Amino acid sequence: MKFCSECGQGVTARVPDGDTRSRFVCDHCQTIHYQNPRIVAGCLAVHGQQVLLCRRAIEPRRGFWTLPAGFMENGETTEEAALRETWEEARARLQQQELYMLFNLPHINQVYMFFRGELADLEFSAGEESLEVRLFHEHEIPWDELAFPTVGKTLKQYFLDRQEQAFPVRIRDILYRPGQHRR
Q: Tell me: the pLDDT tens digits for 138-166?
């Protein structure tokens, strides 16, 4: 960040009085510009023994499979964001959705939240951000073609939990280690 969004003057990275972290502070109006993690919300949409996946039409990871998800917008709840993204990417509607997985990704300043729910009907199709959308049985999932670690971890946990028919909210951290490929 180079300029203040309040007055347009230059900013300096420093630790403000009473704080413990470096922030961008306006040298003119003294506005402190906080930068916080972004929330990604999405859905694990199920129908019987199948799950709904979307093949990405956009970068990053164009052509890879994912759960419908995206960045939360101001003015919406996490559940609203997840349902909106599911509609935008898969033209799918859910019912009886509940929070299922939460991932902390501090190395990229993101938090992922996946809701699990039943498809309300089978009238889904690819939205603008998807090349195709389809239902997969567990043995059909293209495991080597999944877009993000959060997707694979969510699917694997779901298939384990499905055996017991118990779906508690699960919280996981995905930590980057030097020398490891970031995704």
A: 999 999 999 999 999 999 999 999 999 99
Closest C-alpha to 158, from 125, 104, 117: 117
Q: Which residues touch 102 (CB under 8 Å, ≥6 apart)? A: 111, 112, 113, 114, 169, 170, 171, 172
Q: How far apart are CA 73 and CA 77, in angstroms?
A: 8
pLDDT at residue number 180:
56
Residues in the chain, pLDDT under 50: 182-183
d(CA 174, CA 158) in angstroms, rounded, equals 17
pLDDT of residue 182: 47
State how beta strands 94-105 and 170-173 pair.
parallel
Beta strands in 106-153 (DSSP E): 110-119, 130-136
67 within 8 A of 114, measured Cβ to Cβ: yes
Q: What is the DSSP letter of 48?
A: T
The residues pairing with 182 across neighbouring beta strands, listed in sequence order, are none
DSSP 182: P
What proportions of the chain, in percent to the nearest 5, are helix, strand and coil? 20, 35, 40
Name the pTM for this structure: 0.87
Instruction: With H, G, I as helix, E, B as strand and everything else as coil, classify residue 172.
Output: strand
Question: Rounded CA gap, 138 and 46, in Å?
Answer: 11
